[in-house]
Specification:
Largest sheet: 6 strands, mixed
Strand order of the largest sheet: 4-5-8-7-11-6
Helix content: 25-40%
Structural class: alpha/beta
Number of helices: 19
Distance between the termini: 149 Å
Shape: elongated
């Protein structure tokens, strides 16, 4: 009866939903008996919509000032998105990367970006967070790591000059004057403050659609998430259950798959003649989902795909189509979430094996980077920057957009991004290396072997040089020689050596960290040892000096004895 009632209600609403569209199909008028059978209470449906506010991946985890200027300009991407969602009956899911990118620039943030952020803070919509960089959290959990990755720190990106003004504004007349010449250290915002927002639901997380397995829920809960969004195809629940369920102690808001797909079709239609049909399908899907529920008032959650570029006009039309039905009421997400949850379980929909293998390589590379960065003066800054870059990679397109018929990941964008990250990782771990040089000639019995080391990192590093002769012709006086190399420069260390016999010696030159970790690749150099030549050269030089002195002395005596011509 409820499904039949929904169909009748749909017939009453289609004419309004498609009004003004010349290509809209005409709705068949219901009979008097059908109208009499409709009970508005039996088909009343509350609908909540989540619309994403994101930017394309590829920023490395923070948007530059130039990119922000472009995105927040009068016709920029973020401006258009905010225009589309502001003040409408939907919830905004924002990527914290956008907020952090503006705040981390302090006073140097573009004026348009600061204005955009202020405008975002004033919208009437409820706001919930997406994972940072719109990253896909279950890509990590399904590799076997029981953690949800997020930013470590933004301190490396903070410039003191961009926060000095804020420090001066907080100084009051009652404070003691500072001594002339004293450096003022501004109060940097914490990493938590940079991403903080007045979110409508605490502990909210939205994994990508149809990517969750049962084990992921426990990891999310351990990371202090209390409310998640799942697709209806990713859960198993009673047929009459609503949009709020409880899974292993965590509240899950269930996005109706059919209604969400219909919304994406309505927003993504490119031909005018397709729009009315797509909107009619949207209303039909919502009413069908509401009518199938056992509660007196049904509840339907719709999630808009993050890959869609929202059009204000198209979104307005879709919302008007839903509102035109007397059985549909658009409500805030918190209203929908306040319903009594039903019991449910996860229907496992794991990530593709190919994508999980790729993420495994990414995580292994970051672990090797973390170990390598121990030689740097501030390793945490390098680690934090690379974490943001990793999250940016994990936010590259959705699995549903990149899985071929065999189930393997076929996204060219994903593979290109992964390979680029791995290449950057290899370059970083090869940034400190021994500078190759020509063969050395060692003439002295005791001397120093010069070894030059280059550092391509943006901060100083400290390494230990080790020289290991492959034959017994040469003895090394120090097993490890400490050397500090400034950022983006070279430095030379002198290794004490002693020649024991003449000949050509191959020596291995390696770098290690303070903990003994080998840095870079070993270099093999040849040393031509000519023991004793130093003494002969000194004697020959001394003899030459004696000869020159003697010749000069003799010439001087001869000139004195020679008679002077009158």
């Amino acid at each position: 009866m409820r499904v039949f009632s929904a169909a009748v209600a749909l017939g009453l609403s289609l004419g309004v939903a498609a009004g003004g569209a010349a290509a809209a199909p005409s709705a068949a008028a219901p009979s008097a008996a059908e109208i009499a059978a409709v009970s508005p209470a039996s088909v009343a449906t509350q609908v909540s919509i989540i619309a994403p506010l994101t930017v394309p991946s590829g920023s490395g985890g923070l948007l530059s000032a130039e990119t922000l200027t472009d995105y927040t300009g009068p016709s920029g991407l973020l401006t258009r998105q905010l225009d589309a969602v502001a003040g409408k009956a939907l919830t905004v899911a924002i990527d914290p990367l956008i907020v952090a990118s503006i705040r981390v620039l302090g006073t140097s943030a573009p004026e348009s970006a600061r204005g955009w952020l202020e405008r975002l803070s004033l919208i009437s919509n409820e706001v919930v967070p997406l994972p940072y960089a719109n990253s896909d959290p279950t890509l990590v959990t399904q590799t076997g790591r029981e953690e949800i990755l997020g930013p470590i720190s933004f301190d490396f990106a903070l410039n003191p000059a961009n926060f000095a003004a804020a420090d001066e504004s907080e100084t009051t007349e009652t404070q003691a004057p500072m001594d002339v010449g004293t450096d003022v250290v501004p109060p940097y915002p914490t990493s938590g403050e940079l991403v903080a927002w007045d979110y409508a639901i605490d502990g909210f997380v939205r994994p990508r659609s149809n990517t969750v397995v049962a084990d992921d829920i426990a990891v999310l809960a351990a990371a202090n998430f209390s409310t998640t969004v799942l697709s209806s195809t990713n859960v198993s629940r009673d047929p009459g259950a609503g949009s709020v369920v409880m899974i292993d102690g965590m509240t899950a808001l269930i996005a109706d798959s059919a209604a969400s797909t219909a919304m994406d079709e309505a927003l993504g239609s490119t031909l005018d003649r397709d729009v009315p049909a797509a909107e009619a399908e949207l209303v039909s899907s919502v009413l069908a989902a509401g009518a199938s529920q056992a509660a007196e008032t049904g509840s339907v959650l719709i999630t808009i795909d993050h890959s869609l570029e929202l059009s204000s006009a198209r979104l307005d039309t879709a919302l008007a189509s839903l509102s035109s039905s007397p059985s549909i009421t658009l409500v805030p997400l918190t209203t929908l979430a306040s319903a009594t949850p039903a019991a449910a379980t996860i229907s496992d929909l794991p990530q593709s094996e190919a994508r999980i293998n790729d993420v495994g390589q990414l995580l292994a590379a970051t672990q090797e980077e973390r170990t390598f960065f121990s030689i740097a003066a501030d390793p945490e800054a390098l680690i934090a920057a690379r974490r943001l870059a990793l999250l940016d990679v994990l936010g590259t397109n959705a699995p549903s957009d990149s899985v071929d018929a065999s189930g393997d990941d076929a996204s060219a964008d994903w593979l290109a991004t992964v390979n680029s990250f791995l290449a950057d990782s290899r370059d970083l771990r090869a940034a400190v290396t021994v500078v190759e040089s020509s063969d050395f000639l060692l003439l002295a019995d005791n001397s120093f072997l010069p070894v030059s080391v280059s550092n391509a990192l943006n901060q100083p590093v400290t390494v230990y040089i080790t020289v290991s002769p492959r034959t017994g012709l040469l003895a090394v006086g120090a097993q490890r020689v400490e050397l500090t190399i400034e950022a983006n420069s070279q430095a030379r260390g002198n290794i004490p050596v002693q020649s024991l016999s003449n000949g050509v010696v191959d020596v291995e030159i390696s770098l290690t960290s303070s903990t003994g970790l080998e840095i870079g690749t070993r270099t093999v150099s040849k040393i031509n040892v000519q023991a004793g030549w130093e003494t002969l050269i000194v004697l020959a030089f001394a003899a030459l000096v004696v000869v020159i002195f003697s010749v000069g002395f003799v010439r001087s005596i001869v000139r004195r004895r020679k008679p002077v011509d009158d």
